[in-house]
Fold Ubiquitin carboxyl-terminal hydrolase.
Amino acid sequence: MTENTLNYCTATRMNDTKLGHVQRVREHLQSLENSVSNTDRQRKRKQSDNSSPDSKLKKDSDGTVAQSATGLRNLGNTCFMNAILQSLSNIQVFSCYFKELPSVALRSGKTAGRRMYHTRSQGDSSVSLVEEFRKTLCSLWQGSQTAFSTDALFYVIWKIMPSFRGYQQQDAHEFLRYLLEHLHREMQGSKNGSPSPALSPDRPKHASESKCCINGTSTIVTSVFGGVLQNEVYCLICGTESRKFDPFLDLSLDIPSQFRIKFTKDQEPGPTCTLNDCLQSFTDLEELDETELYMCHKCKTRQKSTKKFWIQKLPKVLCLHLKRFHWTAFLRNKIDTYVEFPMRGLDMKSFLLEPENSLLENCLYDLAAVVVHHGSSIGSGHYTAYGLHEHRWYHFNDSTVTLVSEEAVLKAKAYILFYTERSDQESPAKI
């Protein structure tokens, strides 16, 4: 066999392998799409046949009934997605916006009866994350079925977020970041619905507000979750100070190292780590190590420096991610430290760049939802969520929803915390 013939055969086999892989992905997506259609038909039949009020209720271990709450079916290690969706559904200022959006238009001609989607930013006109997200939120808190299947939404996620394809366990925080980013991008190019009154183009924008517009114009995502950090870097050699504004949708907080010590049964437990400890650690002055040397424009070389974060603008909904997973030489370990967090009145004023220019009421936050990871590693375990709905706390464990006490929520080892800004007229809710 000649060298040219051998190269040709090798290239042919490689192309066949690639084509085979692409074909398998396409077949898998097609099967998922078919299951979506079948699920929709089955769901409509169940809704028309379901006349028993008992099927709409769920009970906890004490027999307390959770009325109107709807769980989400686990499609195969999709608890990470279910926990995030349930949390977002309990953030009223965010979920109500989507639920009030009109449904998308219908196609005409040969595709009459099928929905038309607009996903300009994704380059795929056959799916819409916004529309499937809207339909999912509308299906929750209806009390019309025991559990809702997110097949259609999951299918869209597979198409536009390749890293979430398959049925392996995923990181709930990573999924939240991807979800908000893709919703934001699609809504920037969306032709569906009218803009929120809060995003009206006639309303003058505050200077700090324009800074939190990630990737262009503002949407409901940045309007609700968008805040601004001021990053200050100080050169320890020449004294040059550099300031930069960074928009954020959530804050990732380290659990301070002094609280990560594991105590044996014979040892006295140390002090309890609080959310305030994590926030203080995030905003404390930090000297950058040798791997993070700052490029000083005055010295024209990398120098030792210090870094400090200030919050320049607080968001309407403050999303706090506790960094419970860290990499070692070979694997990603979990920090299982309990972090005490407030149910009401989280005061963020001391972390602001200009606290004297902010009203006290605008710096107070009340808890709306909590995501919890159960297990020892990020690639395994299980996610659940707690959410506050009409002054009552619920625990969302995939298809099961139960009423829980405030004390049960406060005992949770939180992974993600959602706090909503307290308005001037709002007073702490008594549960």
